Amino acid sequence: MTQAGMLAPAYNPQEVERRWYTYWEEKGYFKAPINEKDKSFSIVMPPPNVTGSLHLGHALDNTMQDILVRWHRLRGEATLWLPGTDHAGIATQARVEEELAKEGLSKYDLGREKFLQRVWEWKHLYGTKITSQLRLLGASCDWSRERFTMDEGCSRAVREVFVRLYEKGLIYRGNYIINWCPHCHTTISDIEVEHEEETGYLYYILYPFKDGEGGIIVATTRPETMLGDTAVAVHPDDERYRDQVGRTLVLPLLNREIPVIADAYVDPDFGTGAVKITPAHDPNDFEVARRHGLPEITVIGRDAVMTEEAGPYAGMERYTCREQVVRDLKAQGFLVKIEEHRHAVGHCYRCHTIIEPLVSQQWFVRMAPLARPAMEAAKEGRVRFVPERFTKIYLNWLENIRDWCISRQLWWGHRIPVWYCQQCGEVICSVDDPEECSACGSTALEQDPDVLDTWFSSALWPFSTMGWPEKTPELKQYYPTSVLVTGRDIIFFWVARMLFMGLEFMREVPFREVLIHGLVLDAQGRKMSKSLGNGVDPIEVIEQYGADTLRFMLVTGNTPGNDLRFRPERLEATRNFCNKIWNAARFVLMNLEGYRPGKYEPEFTLADRWILSRLNGLIAAVTSRLEEYELGQAAELLYDFFWGEFCDWYIELAKPRLYRGNPKEKFTAQQVLLTVLDKSLTLLHPFMPFITEEIWQKLPGSGESIMVSNWPAPDLEAIEPAVEAEMERVMEIVRSIRNLRSEMNVPPGRKAGVILVAGEDHIRQSLVGVASYLETLAQAAPVQVLAELEQPPAKAATAVAAGVKIYLPLEGLIDVGLEISRLVKEVQAVKSELQKVKRKLQNPDFRLKAPAEIVAKEEAKARELEAKEIALTERIEFLRG
Q1: What integer pLDDT is reported at residue 212 of this predicted model?
Q2: What is d(CA 830, CA 827) in angstroms, rounded to the nearest whole number?
Q3: Going by C-beta distance under 8 Å and a sequence separation of 6 or more, which residues neighbour residue 545?
Q4: How close are the terminal C-alpha atoms of the chain, in Å?
Q5: Sheet holding 335-348, edge to edge
Q6: Are 85 and 149 in contact (CB under 8 A)?
Q7: Quick check: 391 pLDDT over 60?
Q8: Which among 394, 390, 389 has a CA at the least distance from the CA of 375?
């Protein structure tokens, strides 16, 4: 804490931010208390990848969480924000394998144990990078409780959950079609497959009947998989094929006999209405095959190379095989035609390789029994999505959910807690490593080599991080958590799975509400990526502008569930706001000389009552917006009030009393300035923690930290709508006078007499009382307030504002002749510029070749110049008249 006093001439975020974060941490302000008497608020941080670095999505997500956490802490609630990182199986293993490759080694050269040792070394070396970056952002989480998805406690929870689900029959091992990434050499779940629209081809192939009488033409996008066909299917209601069902076809190229079957899965309108069935390489075909008892023939291996089952094509890479199959089909007369075709192709979310559906023995979670309670929780309102539209998306996914493949062919991760007895074949699932076979007593046990999907341990995050399966004080006080803040892109990856696991093991939802935010896109609305070169490093932004600028920029204009476009110019605007706050605070502190609370009984003017009314209305509105998770709207309200009302109007109106007022007037102005600044800083603190702390510490009578001060409550009696309306009338009149002075080119510092005509007595009385405001704000002196005006001044600019007629007499104020000459020259310049723009727009080549946005910009410019020419011409006519 520093003594009340002066602020530096300019705000330096680099000097301020690190100092205050260190202070907060050392004081223990982030630590969550265990006190069941207090009202509690809790959030678990979506754990970023342990070896990752902060990106703008993280910055937005954690800024939103920190706003909520700091706000609830200011409200006096026991607050927990629990941080941690994810082991990120595929991503982390891939990074370490890349490093090994630089040494000319592979993981197989090291073996499993030594490889894992290298991964742990990598984790310890780079694992603190992202948490250090979160500190730079200002994240006020309880670092004493930081967790890692593979720490001892989380690992124990993972094993406990696996074993319990296995014993309930909700985890099983079986052959099933899975998504295989040939590059990462592992399975990935359905929701980890990114489907992208691509232009490919539809190949129409003739499958002849065995008896030589005709055949059936099928259409496929993947002719290489035909080598694994075990049937051709048609819709049972398709009249074209009703007589063909049950007949036998001969598979081209391999001459294998396959049946024609009927199944309602077939879309009669796609292609020819007949589809090839390849059970080992298509998830839909796999289900059809199970219904009809068809064999599965694997013709593409895990390395994306054709297997021995592919006959003469064995050993070919899958796409090389496609080209050869098409050539052979054409040569043998089976290729009927090829059509260009747009379709969705599945890619690995991690490396972007096209995935290969394969039948494999894997571990699965049976999802239907877990999904039902999770659906009921949403329908009954026990968990609420913000915005509400995501509830429907969540429920639709659950209604069509498939079993979750949880095994991964990796070494880094939670190894599946299952052992196989090499003596008798017994399968042992255990929380603790078994020493001998429970069936035969043999010690020849071999653990399953696979690891669990990273999202399995992440699904336990809300309760595993608080000590489950033990019954801890943390779970009692902070579970269920209050809200989960997360991106819309991981609702299925993570949010739904946490709900499954929380309801299954805690018998309660893991969070009451889910606040969904969108993605941070570039200015053109594109995802940020290395390939596009449009990524923005938030740490570089913080180094240049400060964390407060980045935080406030990210949250303003952001609405729940919607994507946010990152525009660099918005950073400049937000930095200007920081500077405005700093300069306003500096002005207030410089003018507190002689101020002592209670020195006088304040005598409030209209301006005082107005700003205090607006302040209390702001407190109520910001509190309401935060309760509704409208963080962007709350930030905009604060911006508009502080800059647009406090700085632009009230401070200007307070200056005469500070400089020339009597002691009581000065005291009142000082008290109001200090009150508004103090409460504004507290309202701004969750959004801009560093600059608000630095200023707050300089206020007279400040405490230890703004972080642990009190969130202001609105004084409803101080909210005066009539006063606000009266002041708004003054502001409208001031704006009108300023506009008239600008239009008539009146020198800025020159006083100008103004005549105000108002028919209503109370309005006239009010205007007489605030004549000094017009002088201060609009250089208006003298000000005449009349009920009517029989003869308006011969030369006067006029306007009407808030029902008041305004006259600005020009005689003696400006040299009319010189002003007309200036305006004539300006009109000529505008006409010249307008002609240039019109010539450009009339040029057919320009309209044809220029981008649409450039053409639109020139059209807008032409309209603007035309309007300006009309306005200038009217002003000349007025002055000549």
Answers
A1: 86
A2: 5
A3: 13, 571, 574, 575
A4: 66
A5: 215-220, 193-208, 335-348
A6: yes
A7: yes
A8: 394
Tokens at 428, concatenated = 């042992």
Rounded CA separation 247/216 (Å): 11
- From CA 196, how far away is CA 547, in angstroms rounded? 36
Asked whether residue 63 carries a pLDDT value surpassing 90, the answer given is yes
> Is 775 buried (19+), middle (13-18) or exposed (0-12) by CB count in 10 A?
middle
Token representation of residue 42:
């809790």
List, for residues 216-257, the tens digit of each pLDDT value: 999 999 999 999 999 999 998 899 998 899 999 999 999 999
Please identify which residue in the block is written with the tokens 């190229």.
Answer: 253
* pLDDT score for 195: 85
Tokens 């240039």 found at: 836
Which 8-state DSSP code applies to residue 490?
Answer: G
Rounded CA gap, 448 and 112, in Å?
13
User: Where are the strands (E) in 227-383, listed by range?
Assistant: 231-234, 248-250, 257-262, 274-277, 335-348, 356-365
Label the pairing between strands 78-82 and 84-85: unpaired
Give the DSSP per-residue string, 185-205.
TEEE-GGGEEEEEEEEEEEEE
Query: CA 177 to CA 280: how far, in whole Å?
Result: 7
Q: Is 557 helix (H, G, I), strand (E, B) or coil?
A: coil
Report DSSP letters for 782-832, one per residue: EEEEES--SS--SSEEEEEETTEEEEEE-TTTS-HHHHHHHHHHHHHHHHH
Peptide bond connecting 560 to the previous residue in cis, omega within 30 degrees of 0: no
Checking DSSP bridges between strand 564-565 and strand 520-521, what pairing results, if any? parallel
Cα–Cα distance, 550 to 66 (Å, whole number)? 13
CA distance 315 to 308: 8
DSSP secondary structure code for residue 716 in this structure: G
Q: How far apart are CA 799 and CA 785, in angstroms?
A: 15
Question: At 327, which helix (H) or strand (E)?
Answer: helix 318-331
Q: Which of 154, 737, 732 is nearest to 461 (CA)?
A: 154
Put simply, whether the predicted model's pTM sits higher than 0.70 gets the answer yes
Residue pair 482/42 in contact (Cβ under 8 Å)? The answer is yes
For the chain, what percent of residues have pLDDT higher than 90?
67
What is the chain's mean pLDDT, rounded? 91
- Cβ density class 186-225: b for 16+ within 10 Å, e for less: bbbbebbbeeeeeeeebbbbbbbeeeeeebbbbbbebbbb
- Tell me 279's DSSP state: T
- Distance of CA 141 to CAs 32, 131, 396, Å? 9, 10, 34
Contact 88, 456 (CB under 8 A): no
Percent of the chain with pLDDT over 70: 99
Q: In which band, very low, low, confident or very high, does the pLDDT at 616 lie, cut at 50, 70 and 90?
A: very high
Give CA separation, 464 vs 42, 158, 372, 469, 515, in Å: 15, 8, 22, 7, 21
Residue 536 in tokens: 């923005």
Q: Helices H, strands E: what count in the chain?
A: 29, 29
The CA distance from 239 to 217, in Å, is 15
- Residues whose CB falls within 8 Å of the CB of residue 261, separated by 6 or more in sequence, listed in order: 231, 232, 233, 234, 245, 277, 288, 292, 294
How far apart are alpha carbons 551 and 520 in whole angstroms? Answer: 13
Give the pLDDT mean for 622-627: 97
pLDDT at 50 > cutoff 90: no
Per residue, the 3-state secondary structure of 657-703, as one string, reads HHHHCCHHHHHHHHHHHHHHHHHHHHHHCCCCHHHHHHHHCCCCCCC
In this structure, what token pair is assigned to residue 69? Answer: 């956490």
Number of C-beta neighbours around residue 446 at 10 A: 10
